[in-house]
């Protein structure tokens, strides 16, 4: 059932060029996804043509700016406003810029690095120490 | 349940509901469940409404709209919180943008449980609201009309 | 030049079951610009992955939207299963497909009703909602819920449907079909309905493509785009045909949905004929580590569920991109230049689902 999905890593300066190329090839703009990592953001731009999905990924530091692609794909403006409002990213030259009024949330930029708690992956369990039964005893005595 | 002298009209507003309860509110007004047999109809105008049926928990932005709608309704009025989100916040109560139940914003008279609330329980809730409305009317007759709030 | 006026539309409006707000800039009776404003329903449920583990989150995914509730949990489960490499039993895939298609029917009939209400045909609205009830009865008997089903889970489905019930569903749908035909006949042939819908809200094929339209909206403009063609779940064993109209107006969008209703009935009956015996779930061990974008076709179009995990029981990120969010740019495009009296009609023929959109 699985649909093959490849993600190409690109630099943020390449974004507009690649978008223009894909537009010329007849790709449709699907979405911008964003995930908050420990100290950076991970943006995924998705394009589709004839049920074939192409993904491009940019890793972005919090204070960096990205160019808007709404000049090429006019429907990108909503996604870019969303990036600004929910993640606190700076997007340059959006065609319709809401200036932070698209989403009015109780806390500002709820998905920014400060507000997102990263889940801790399970650590490999430390080897069982030999004095295990004794330490258990001590604990029960303490109780 | 006694018979009412009036046929109250319902105004429905979706304050961050997931749509499930909204559909059920609409369904309870249509042929199979037919709330209209009690003379109750759905209106879009707050100035014609006696009962406000709110679905969903409230967020920052819909709160103002809700207060605005409530203030536009003529006195006396009854608020029905339809569904679990409207009573407590349901699965969404931990979300950053959710205030909690409707009672954080408006005085709620009737709570209708269920996720999504079933049409039967919505009908029960709205009929209960009719009784409260009758009570409010008789109360007002006894004590006289309260002075309009500034 | 006529004077420009700004008319607020929504968030509380008689034709809208859900809050969305538009600032309509008008010249006389003509809309020259439309600025949408959303977030009246923004809850921030994507952030809940921090607090619910990936198994529990299915219940949140179920409640993203009431109309396409099952599709959301199905899409979420598919994404997680794909990351974890879980092979869902074939019977569970068929059951998911049957419920998904039933959801499509009930959503489309509901839309037909609400659209009829928008152009002031109230008895048609009542008829449509009456015909929707048999589908909800099937849901209630097979899952226990009318709107929020909660039938999907990571690794399969929660409930089985026995052979008798399956043939019962098939019979009931066969019984529903002529009634639905009668209802559709009014939409297709009635003079006043035609007059109100045809030629209104035209969207060309090129615009639909560049503005990223999905679902019935794109198909009404002549685009062959139906995510069921990817062959997720049991659709690869079924004969799925995208319903395509070329006119691109409100009438065409209405026709697409009507034809999809009948196609869904056919698909369900085909699936009931082909469903194999076997288990309905597999045990899931471990936690998701990786990422996947699952694309499925909702009643309103393509929806993308993105899940990313790092090996803990809590997902790192969950994102849902819903069809209405993708259709809003086209909605603005259509609204520009339309008559102010057609605005409710145009907005409704897009079938906006605001609860999904704002999450």
At CATH's second level, what is the architecture of chain B? 3-Layer(aba) Sandwich
CATH topology grouping of chain B: Rossmann fold
Provide the CATH top-level class of chain B: Alpha Beta
In terms of per-residue confidence, which ranges of chain C show pLDDT below 50 for 5 or more consecutive residues?
none
Radius of gyration of chain C: 20 Å
What would your notes on this structure say?
- The complex is a heterotrimer of chains A (143), B (150) and C (359).
- With 143 residues, chain A is of the alpha/beta class.
- Chain A has one domain: 2-Layer Sandwich (Beta Polymerase, domain 2), CATH 3.30.460.80.
- Chain A is built from three helices and six strands, in the order E-H-E-E-E-E-H-E-H.
- Chain A has helices spanning 15-25, 76-87, 132-142; strands at 7-9, 28-36, 41-49, 52-60, 65-67, 90-92.
- In chain B, helix 3 (84-87) links the parallel strand 4 and strand 5 (110-112).
- Chain B has four helices and five strands; from the N terminus they run E-H-E-E-H-E-H-E-H.
- Chain B has helices at 20-28, 60-72, 84-87, 119-143, and strands at residues 9-14, 41-43, 51-55, 78-82, 110-112.
- Chain B is globular, with a radius of gyration of 15 Å.
- Chain C is globular and about 70 Å long.
- By secondary structure, chain C is of the alpha+beta class.
- Chains in contact: A-B, A-C, B-C.
- The interface between A and C is large, with 37 and 49 residues.
């Amino acid at each position: 059932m699985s649909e093959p999905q490849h993600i190409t890593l690109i630099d943020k300066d390449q974004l507009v060029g690649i978008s223009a190329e894909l537009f010329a090839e007849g790709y449709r703009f699907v979405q911008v996804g964003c995930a908050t990592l420990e100290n950076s953001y991970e943006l995924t731009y998705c394009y589709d043509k004839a049920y074939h999905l192409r993904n491009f990924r940019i890793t972005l530091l919090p204070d960096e700016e990205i160019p808007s692609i709404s000049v090429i794909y006019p429907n990108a403006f909503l996604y870019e406003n969303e990036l600004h409002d929910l993640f606190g990213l700076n997007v340059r030259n959006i065609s319709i810029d809401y200036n932070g009024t698209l989403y009015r949330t109780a806390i500002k930029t709820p998905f920014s690095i400060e507000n997102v708690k990263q889940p801790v992956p399970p650590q490999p369990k430390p080897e069982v120490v030999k004095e295990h039964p004794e330490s258990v005893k001590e604990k029960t005595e303490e109780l | 349940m006694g018979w009412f002298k009036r046929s109250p009209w319902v105004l429905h507003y979706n304050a961050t509901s997931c749509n499930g309860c909204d559909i059920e509110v609409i369904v309870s007004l249509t042929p199979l469940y037919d709330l209209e047999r009690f003379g109750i109809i759905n209106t879009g105008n707050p100035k014609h409404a006696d009962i406000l049926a709110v679905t969903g928990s409230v967020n920052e932005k819909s709160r103002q709209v809700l207060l605005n709608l409530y203030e536009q309704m003529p006195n006396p009025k009854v608020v029905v919180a339809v569904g679990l989100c409207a009573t407590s916040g349901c699965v969404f109560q931990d979300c950053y943008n959710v205030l909690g139940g409707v009672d954080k914003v408006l005085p709620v008279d009737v709570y209708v449980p269920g996720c999504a609330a079933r049409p039967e329980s919505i009908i029960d809730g709205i009929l209960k609201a009719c009784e409260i409305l009758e009570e409010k009317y008789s109360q007002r007759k006894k004590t006289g009309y309260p002075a309009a709030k500034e | 030049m006529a004077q420009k006026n700004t008319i607020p539309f929504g968030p509380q409006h008689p034709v809208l079951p859900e809050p969305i707000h538009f600032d309509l800039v008008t010249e006389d009776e003509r809309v020259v610009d439309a600025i949408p404003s959303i977030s009246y329903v923004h809850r921030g449920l994507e952030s809940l992955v921090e607090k619910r583990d990936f198994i529990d989150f299915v219940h949140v995914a179920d409640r993203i939207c009431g109309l396409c509730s099952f599709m959301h949990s199905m899409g979420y489960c598919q994404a997680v299963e794909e990351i974890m490499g879980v092979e869902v039993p074939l019977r569970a895939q068929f059951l998911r497909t049957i419920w998904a298609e039933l959801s499509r029917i009930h959503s489309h009939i509901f839309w037909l009703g609400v659209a009829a209400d928008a152009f002031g045909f109230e008895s048609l609205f009542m008829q449509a909602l009456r015909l929707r009830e048999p589908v909800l009865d099937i849901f209630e008997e097979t899952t226990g819920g009318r709107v929020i089903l909660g039938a999907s889970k990571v690794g399969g489905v929660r409930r089985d449907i026995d052979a008798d019930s399956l043939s019962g569903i098939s019979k009931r749908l066969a019984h529903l079909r002529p009634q639905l035909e009668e209802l559709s006949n009014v939409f297709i042939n009635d003079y006043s309905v035609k007059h109100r819908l045809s030629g209104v809200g035209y969207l060309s094929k090129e615009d639909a493509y560049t503005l990223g339209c999905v679902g019935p909206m794109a198909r009404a403009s002549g685009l062959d785009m139906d995510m069921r063609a990817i062959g997720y779940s049991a659709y690869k064993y079924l004969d799925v045909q995208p319903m395509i109209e070329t006119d691109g107006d409100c009438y065409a969008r209405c026709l697409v949905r009507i034809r999809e209703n009948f196609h869904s009935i056919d698909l369900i009956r085909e699936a009931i004929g082909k469903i194999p015996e076997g288990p309905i779930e597999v045990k899931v061990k471990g936690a998701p580590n990786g990422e996947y974008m699952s694309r499925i076709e909702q009643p309103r179009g393509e929806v993308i569920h993105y899940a990313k995990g790092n090996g803990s029981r809590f997902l790192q990120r969950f994102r849902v991109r819903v069809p209405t969010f993708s259709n809003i740019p086209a909605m603005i495009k259509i609204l520009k230049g339309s008559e102010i009296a057609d605005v409710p009609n145009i907005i409704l023929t897009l079938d906006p689902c605001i609860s999904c959109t704002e999450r």
